[in-house]
Structures
1.
Amino acid sequence: MIFSDPNLGDRVRSASTVAVLREPAFLVLDRVSNLDPADQIRATFLAAVAMALGAGINPHEEVTRSLRMMSDAEADHTVHVQAIRDYAENELRRFV
């Protein structure tokens, strides 16, 4: 299905809810987990930048916004983002 949203950039920039992003972020990791650890990180960043540029969104601003979201993303009673961090610390670094 092709969906045209002329306000996509505005919706991305103005969205404040982090809760809806936790599980999808985890699913992205799950899809690349069979790759070489360095390639997992590089491919995820490449996809994010390509998506942002294709949608007319500044990827640098989205990285900054994502960094600010981390405290909410790792709030009490949440597991997905902390699981991603734990995976990087305990699995990806193990291969370095």
2.
Amino acid sequence: MAHGSTVPFEQLPNEILYLIFESSCTDNLIQEYPWPSERLSLPAIAYLPALAISAVCTRWRSLALASPGLWSQFRLEIAPIEKTTVDTQSGFISTLQFYLTRSADSPLQIDLETQGRGHGPRNPLTLDLILAHTTRWKRFSYTGDYDLGRCEGLSEHPSFPVLDQLALRGREMYIQVTDLDCFEHAPKLFAVSTDCLYPAESDLRWEQLTSLDVLEARDENITLLSQCTGLAVLKLRSGSTVSFGSSSISLASLKSFTFVLTRKRKSSLEKILSSFAFPSLTELMLYSEYNSNANIIWPLDAFATFISRSSCILTTLSLSNVIISDLNLIAALRLLPSLANLSTNNLLDPTGGSPLTSHFVSSMHGLSAAPLLPKLQSLSIKLLRTSFDDAAFIGMISSRWMPDPATGLDCLRSLVFHFLDRELDVELYEPLWRLDRMGMRVVITGKDNNCNGP
């Protein structure tokens, strides 16, 4: 039986095997021990898929050694120098060197994590090893508090000819402008993510970016956003209700905007929505970092003005940790007739209940006088509170499966629904399981279980 189960896999051509191996080797963890508060539950080789694959059999080894791309993506975790030993450091360096050698000339995708402020006047050997390959860095992500601007090999601002994605975030401190400056010679850079408070002061080529993720929307960053005229993706993380003055900033090419609230206390979106115009926007995502608290207050008038000012056609909306009434939710969705994808998580009304009331559900019904979201194809809901009109919801979803073309409704293709505070009544939701068997993607789960159909 075991032999029969392996024969089909053994018969796969190398081209297919490589694709499987490639998807499995995106996170090779090369970790310097002992890492504080970390304990591996599996042998170290289990965290090194490229190495593990090459140890299975002669064929797999030959394919792995002939595929430098499998060795080019790795995550490095450097322990504080006072917690390392000669033996563990030697094994760590040997493994890293092995990966760098096997990756040959392939572009490197590196995630580097460090603890502490640094290891003294000289670079850790780890840094020296990867800095010898800066011409191959394609994606570089760093989390830690090293002063990169003073690291030998980076302080000279080397060339990064193929680097296109850069992420720099501090662990206990913010990334400094001098850290960003190290990467000013990156002609292909298109995506930057950083928690630097004053990125506009950096010498990075902001005008060439198409994706930007910055920690705070500070007044000082108006210059930065004005420079990023080609942005298609923007994520702003803010702990304050900021405003960029009386006039709005227009980003003509922006297609995706995400706003993340980084503080626990309640905050309104009014000022942030009043600060922008995005005429090409198709995707809007709003959420708080604190998933347990709904703390983003929904400003209906500001949202309506934002949509009118932008004259955009939204197709995707994601709301998480938002305080909004059912009436305001209905009114907001009325403004978005082209919306195809809706995702909600942890929504609460001002009284502490759920805005997904019977009235809201009925407004979504395909047989109502003017159904909300006629183009809706994908619906994802994570529902707080136990009170919910299950029967009305089941009827509404059923009404949007293969609707009469005369109604003008698109067919709902996907439903993902999770009850956060109650168990799932499997029998009650049998009508939706039938839709799943007919072709709709239906995933429904309840509290403390993974049930997805009978």
